[in-house]
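Issue 218. Parser rejects a valid record. Input:
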Amino acid sequence: MCTNAIDTLEFDASTAKRAQYEAFDFELTAPGLVTVRNESYASADEHSYRVNVENSVPVACECPADMYHDGACKHRVAVAIREPVLEAATEYENDQEPAVITDGGTTTERTVTCEQRAESRPADCDCLPTFEELPCWPCYREGFRTPNPEADTED
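Output the parser choked on:
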């Protein structure tokens, strides 16, 4: 991750303040794409914009401020100053599956693929072949995103 992402953006003090204090919600929606939703508004759905991340820098936003004003908008700055969001977007941009855990945004690195550890399925695996694309809960909880290929097909 680029540690100087914030240094590459040009913005004023008002934008910096709003990027820090407004209640933003972030969602990784595609490789290098973060949806930023401003929960500070009563109609938050009308204040949701996508921010493009390239080479660990938020480079564009679809909001009117980013399109019509000089400098980065508050959405781009908000992504840049939140390292876990920027890091997750960068990993997602590089086609690595981000593993964001619910301790405030810390990301972990997955070093072993699900296929490599097929033999290490949980003992309580109950994958069903009728759900071809969905693993059982015990497998999903352990990080598997596909059902056990060796699941018992007999009832």
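Fixed in the parser; the record now loads. The CA atoms of residues 19 and 109 lie 28 Å apart.
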